[in-house]
Amino acid sequence: MAERKINAVTKQVLELGPTLAFFAIYLWIKEDSFTIAGTEYSGFIVSALVFVPILLLAMGILWVLTGTISRMQVFTAFMVIFFGGLTAWFNDERFFKMKTSIVYGCLAGLLGIGLLRGQSWLEYVIGDLMPMQRTGWMILTRRLCLMFVALAVANEIIWRTMSTDTWVKLETFAMPAALMAFLWWQIFALQRFLIEPEDDGKA
Q: Which residue from 97, 89, 108, 83 is spatially nearest to 169, judged by alpha carbons?
C-alpha cells in the first residue's frame, strides 16, 4: 500500500510527541513515588510506563493517517514495550535506560552484517528517498554503523555514571540532535555521489 501524504507538522508531532511527553511527565513527577498494587515505583519508572501507551497511540494515529508503518517504528515499539515491561516487573529503571544502547547496538549490528556481505542495507531501506551511487551508500552505511556504535557506548557511559536527570535530558535532546547533525553532515559530504533526477537511469 502506498503511503498517504499528511501534513509535515502533524507527522513531526506524532513522531516526536511521545518522547517530549515522556520528558514533560518526568519533570512533573520525578520527585514523587507511586504505590501500585502494593509496590512503590519512582516517578521515573511511572513516566517510562506512561510513555508506552502514548507511543503506541501516536503510532496508531500515524498508521491510520498514512496507511503504512515502518519496520523501524515496529522495532522501536517492540523494544519500548519489552524493556518497559522489564522495568515495571523488576521495578528497576536500568532496563529502560539500557534500551537505548540495545536499539543503537542492534542497528549497528544489522548495518554491519550487510557490510560484511558487501551490501548496504541502508540503501535497501531508504534508497528511494535519496538516489545515490552504490559507493556513496557503502560509505554512508559504514559511517552510520560507527555512529550507532558511538551512541550505544555513549548511552552506556551516561546512564552508568551520571544522574537520571542528566540521562533523560541527553536521551531526549542531545542524542537525537547529534544523530540528526551527523546525517545532515553526511548528506553534504556525499553530494558528489548523489544521482541527479535528470541523470537517473542513464548508463
A: 97
Tell me the pLDDT tens digit for each residue of 176-190.
Answer: 999 999 999 998 999
Place of cell 544502547: 101
User: Element (H or E) spanning 33, and its range?
Assistant: strand 33-36
What's the rounded Cα separation, in Å, for the pair 184 and 179? 9
The Cα 186–Cα 194 span in angstroms is 11
Residue type (1 letter), 20:
L
- Three-state secondary structure along 84-102? HHHHHHHCCCHHHHHHHHH
pTM of the complete model: 0.87
Query: What is the rounded distance in angstroms from the CA atom of residue 183 to the CA atom of residue 141?
Result: 11
Under-50 pLDDT residues of the chain: 199-203
DSSP symbols for 140-189: HHHHHHHHHHHHHHHHHHHHHHS-HHHHHHIIIIIHHHHHHHHHHHHHHH
10 Å CB burial of residue 55 (0-12, 13-18, 19+) is buried
